[in-house]
Amino acid sequence: MSGTLVESSALANVEINNTFAGGVSEDWYNSDWLYRKKITLKQASSTLSNFPVLVSLSDTDLASNAQADGDDILFTSSDGTTRLNHDLDEYESGGLDAWVNIPTLSSSAATDIYMYYGNAATSSENLASTTWDSSYVAIYHFEEDPPGTDVAEYLDSTNNAHGGWDIVGDGNSKEGAIGKGQGFGASTVANDDWVGTDEHADFSLAAGDHSFEGWFKADEQVSGSGFGVLYGRFSGGTPGAGYFIGIRDSNSNLELDYRADGGDHLNLSSLDSIHDNFEDNNWHYFAISIDVSAKTGYLYIDGNLHDTDTYLGDLIDKTGYPEAAFFMSAITWDSPGNHELLGSMDEIRFTKGSARTDDWFSISYDNATATSTFYSSIGTEEQDTGSGVGVTFSNSASTTNFMILDGGVQAPPYIYISGNYRNDGIFNANSGTTTFNGTSQQYISGFATGTNAFAGL
């Protein structure tokens, strides 16, 4: 670094430290990422493992410094360097919805993570399929807006590739609870306006603990035959097999009907004094947890436990049904318009191998609906402060000309200055200028153009 002081100013008893000469800081993920912010997640009510935290924010710094599609955004743990898997749900003009896998969401202290951005050269850093642990069978964000072509265009965010067929009418609402969702309406065409999947072995959940989650908004009275289906895996008859979850038109409450052998059913209902009508045009979060060893099911609405039920015998899984292994918004063997949801769905998930806990569902709801309090703080934008040997310039006498060489190391634009200098001093740095405007420690910036002599300024 070299330059000349002008306008009758001089430097005396000054030390200039280019702390970038040694490279990137030890707690910085990678020097290719120029910016980061610390996000502090509030202390959880109980410790949860591999919890998918929703990071939902609108940020002017992201809008200015991240790639237009958010592909350069990534997350690390509190050490600033350990990568956390994330699933980028939606990003536009600084508005971010991303699911970040937190290995341990602590109940004893707040959890810090870092969000990095500002790498113009990287391709997508999205790690969707590794964000969701192996207990997840399928996850549908409904971010896609396909044209009704009867192919698997609704993507599954797990690595299981259980995409959903697109049998949804064009022009339906894409409003979602988180990012985009999918609207459904009663159809006059047989088997229209629904989503289905092919058969997969891991759709057979009945033998072990499992759970269902999702968001729904019922716009008006459900259509026909008493039940507007959210989703299920079901075949009719006596006793029938499988399950379906939906809105009952006689009382507008949310119900689960799960068939068991011996003619028994697992029946869960949201009908109570608090929520007895979900056709209110508002988004609601539902979750169902099945504990097979206890032969008990649990229904949660908006993070709260609403109903439990037990069953005899064993739950019966649906087999051999050709239309769809798993369906959303309709029971596909029914006549047109019957059992279809009039409303919207978002973030449909189902898992196997464990029965989720009360805290899991309550924290999930809190995270999605109270982001301003779920993040106890979002820090200011940071840049790397560097590390290493620290290239210095110091003098005890007045001078107007000096040179500092840093070996051509490129780094973010900061130099640390301490000492005494006149407050009208201006340092010419190639075509740019750096102004010294005080008599104490300063962080200053300049312009590096065309030569490594000014690298790091």
Automatic annotation (TrEMBL):
Pfam families: DUF2341
Residues in DUF2341 domain copies: 69-144
This protein's name: DUF2341 domain-containing protein
Lineage, opening ranks: Bacteria, Candidatus Joergenseniibacteriota
